[in-house]
Amino acid sequence: MSPRKTYIWLILIFLTGCSSQGNHTLETGAVLLEQKCAFCHNLDMPPETYEKESAPPMMAVVFHLKEFMKIKDLKDKEDKFIPFIQDYVLYPSKEKSYCDEESLKSYGVMPSQKGNVSSEELKVIAEYMYTFYDQQVYLKEMQAKAAFDALSKGEQLVRSNGCLNCHAIEKDKVGPSFRNIAKNSTEKIMDVIQNGSQGKWKQFNNMMMPAFKDKFSKEELIILKEWIDSLGKIEAPKPWRSKNVI
Q: From which residue to which does the signal peptide run (predicted)?
C-alpha cells in the first residue's frame, strides 16, 4: 500500500472512531440522565405538566440556561454550559441559580447531588442535555405535530400505522391508491383490511397485504372506512397545465 493510501486509511479509522465515540457518549448521557435526574425532572420533549412538580422539566432548564448564559456555539458549551452543570449540581446555591424568584419559590434550590453523581458523569450528562434539548429541533417537532394534528383522524391513522409505505393517497404504489380503494364497497374494504388481500386485488397479486385484524379497534376501522369513503367523493386533482397550452 502506498504511503498516501496508508495515510488516508488512518484518517478514516480516526474519524470513524471519533464518530463512534461521540455516539457512545450521547447514548451514555441518555442513560445517566435517566438514572440520575428523572426522579425529580421530567425528561420528555415536549414535557407533560403536572400540578406537583418537584423540579422544572429538563427541557425548560436547558432552554433557560442557553438563553440566560448566552450560549451561542460549541465553545460556549465547553466554556460555560458544561462547567456550570458540573458545579451547580454538586454545589447548588440561590446565588448561582439562573431561576427567577417565582420559580425558586415554587421549586426551591435543588439539593446537592454530591455522592449521587460524579463530576465526570455530569460532563457526559451535560453533553447530552445540550445536544438533545435543542430549540430548533423542538420547533420543528412542534410544527410537525401541529401539521399532523390538523389532519383528519382517518389520515392520522393511515400515517401513524405505516399504511403509506405501500399505498399512496392519489397514485398506485406497491398497493392500490386509497382513491382507487375508495371505489370498492365498504364490505370489501373492511374485509381486506382485517383479513388481508390474497386473491382480492387482481392487479396486485404479486404483493399481498397482510391481515390487520388485530391492528385496529372497531372504532378505528369505522374512522378508516369513513376517511376512505370520503376520498371517493372528492374530485381528483388535475395535472397542472402550461399557460401556453390550449
A: none
Q: What are phi and psi of 114, to 5 degrees?
A: -60, 130
- What is the pLDDT at residue 6? 46
Q: Provide the CATH number for the domain formed by 18-137 in this structure.
A: 1.10.760
Same fold, 18-137 and 147-233: yes
What ranges do the domains of the chain cover? 18-137, 147-233
> Which residue, among 23, 40, 16, 18, has the nearest Cα to 131 in the 3D structure?
23
Architecture of domain 147-233: Orthogonal Bundle (1.10)
How do residues 29-55 score in pLDDT, each as one tens digit?
Answer: 999 999 999 999 999 988 877 778 899
Instruction: Spell out the residues 6+ positions from residue 145 whose beta carbon is closer than 8 angstroms to its own.
Output: none
In the numeric block, the cell 399481498 is attached to: 208
Q: What is the pLDDT of residues 207-235, one digit of tens each?
A: 788 888 888 998 999 999 999 999 876 55
Give residue 52's pLDDT.
80
